[in-house]
Each structure stands twice: as C-alpha cells, then as structure tokens.
Amino acid sequence: MGELRLRLDELSRDQMRFEHEIDSMSQKAAAEERRLYDGSVANARELDSITHEVDNLKKRRSDREDELLALMEVREELEGQERAAAERSEALRARVAEVGSVAADDLERLRAELKERTEARTALAQTVEPEFLELYEDLRPQKKGVAAVALIDGVCQGCHEQLSSVYVDRLKRVEGPKRCEHCRRILVI
Questions:
Q1: Residue 178 in contact with residue 135, Cβ under 8 Å?
Q2: N vs C: which end of the chain shows fewer Cβ within 10 Å?
Q3: CA–CA distance, 83 with 173 (Å, rounded to integer)
Q4: pLDDT tens for each residue of 70-114
Q5: For helices 2-37 and 44-125, what crossing angle results, to 10°?
C-alpha cells in the first residue's frame, strides 16, 4: 500500500502541475486574443504571428488536457486499488485479531489443563513408593519424558526391542522396579 500511496502522491503533484500549465496557457492565449482584437496591433505580420501563437497555445493546451485526462484515469484506477488494498488489509487485521483471540483462549484452556494434570500427577506421585518415584524422576529427563513404558508381547514400547523370554520370565519373578535390558526404562508388565 505504501507504493500505491507514493504513486498517488506523485500523480497528484503531476495533476496540479498540469492544471497550472493549462491555466497559464489559457490566460496567455486569452491575453493574446485580446491583443489580436483590441486594435492595438496594426501590423499584419505581427497579427499573423499572434494568431499563430494563439493557435499554438490552444494546441498545447489541448494536448496537455488530454495528458491530464489520462493521468486522472490512472489516478482513479490507483485509488480504487488503494481502497481494495485497504479493505483487504482491514479484513486481514480482523482475521489476525480473531486468530489471536482463539489462540489466547486455547492457551488459557491449555494452562488450566496443565495445572489440573500437574495437580493430579502430584497426588498420584504421593501414592508411589519413593524408590520407584526417584528412579522415574531420574530417568524421565534422560528418556525425553518417557521413563515408564508397557511391555506388550515381550516388546518394550519405549525402544521397540524384543526382550528374550528368559529375561521376561525373570522380570515377572523379581520384586522392585522392572527395567528394559536395552533402553533401561521402567517396564509396566
């Protein structure tokens, strides 16, 4: 829109200049015509020169008026483009505000959900044996937040490695935390 505004300003300056030139030519032609008909000039050669000058001024004025009309058409078209761009810009601003509002609502909802889950986790952590909780808290940052996984059909769901059946049988008989022999995550059997 800035480029459109600059171009419109330039066209406005050109229009004012053209209008001034047309006015100046009109005044000069009128003055020369008055001289032509007021009887102050008697020399035929000078009268011919004045007639030629008046015709020339009228021709230049007509050409300049044509240029002015073309310039005004371009300006009108650019003003239409500027209005359309302003409307699009306003529509986009409204859309950004709407998306921002939705995002703010979503963020607030997620914060509330996070708080709720944090409280639930804290309550649940109090029911877990301290030995398990300490191991879990140590593993969680190392394993990108996934410290405990299920063991399904002998496959660790953390590293997706098949555990040997002997190892799985041994895990079932062991007391305390059960861990994957490959990734060392806590296994939930």
A1: no
A2: C
A3: 78
A4: 999 999 999 999 999 999 999 999 999 999 999 999 999 999 999
A5: 170
